[in-house]
Design a protein that fits this description.
By secondary structure, this protein is of the alpha+beta class. It contains three helices and twelve strands; from the N terminus they run E-H-H-H-E-E-E-E-E-E-E-E-E-E-E. The strands form three sheets. Strands 3, 4, 5, 6, 7, 8, 9 and 10 form an eight-stranded mixed beta sheet that branches. The chain has a two-stranded antiparallel sheet with strand order 1-2. A two-stranded antiparallel sheet has the order 11-12. The radius of gyration is 24 Å and the shape is elongated.
């Protein structure tokens, strides 16, 4: 019970805003609902102690602090992080490391300026670093490898030194988008900026 074990993101029952509101009214309740059971029960038991020791002012400060903790922990769970069962606020925060390099292997490269051809494509720091055959030997531990035979990798500019704004279109999957080399979900793209796919026209989001 006292061990700081990992809490899966799927344990979260309340969104961050509701977690903060519920916990401000009943300290610790949202933490318990969202998987931090022992921590939530302790926070609930400490609430009358805070009221008895410091009156309404101390209780208000305590409820505000616990509410902030509920919001932050729920936000961390929403991003897919496995938080600890006793973690408070940003304690033991696990920041995902974005790969500096991404290697696309075996995709059909479609370019509005250079036509179509099959090759490997290496992206480094948001820039197309190299286009060629059998580049897998240049991958290292910091390189994300995307095996894409049978898929089309689309960009208006497909040349070394160009920004890596790419769309990967598979046979039976939704398009995957890389902006400046970083994978983005379609719903994350700004709604005022259409996504241009050569040969497919423009697809607006939002």
């Amino acid at each position: 019970m006292l061990k700081n074990t990992a809490v899966a993101p799927g344990k979260r029952k309340l969104p961050p805003g509701a977690s903060a509101l519920v916990t401000f009214i009943l300290p610790g309740f949202a933490q318990a609902l969202n998987g931090q059971m022992a921590k939530g029960l302790c926070l609930l038991l400490l609430a009358p102690v805070a009221l008895w020791l410091g009156g309404l002012l101390l209780y208000f400060i305590y409820a505000l602090a616990v509410s902030s903790d509920a919001f932050v922990c729920a936000m961390r769970q929403r991003t897919g992080e496995h938080i600890g069962s006793w973690d408070f606020l940003y304690q033991n925060l696990k920041t995902p490391k974005l790969p500096r390099r991404t290697l696309f292997c075996g995709a059909l490269l479609l370019s509005g300026s250079a036509g179509s051809f099959t090759a490997d494509l290496l992206v480094e720091d948001g820039i197309i670093k190299k286009i060629g055959e059998n580049l897998a030997g240049q991958a290292d531990g910091d390189c994300e490898i995307v095996n894409a035979p049978g898929a089309a990798l689309v960009s208006w500019q497909m040349a070394e030194g160009c920004p890596a704004n790419l769309v990967l279109i598979g046979e039976d999957s939704e398009p995957q988008i890389w902006l400046a080399g970083r994978r983005r979900r379609l719903e994350e793209l700004p709604p005022e900026k259409p996504l241009y796919i050569p040969g497919l026209g423009a697809k607006k989001t939002g």
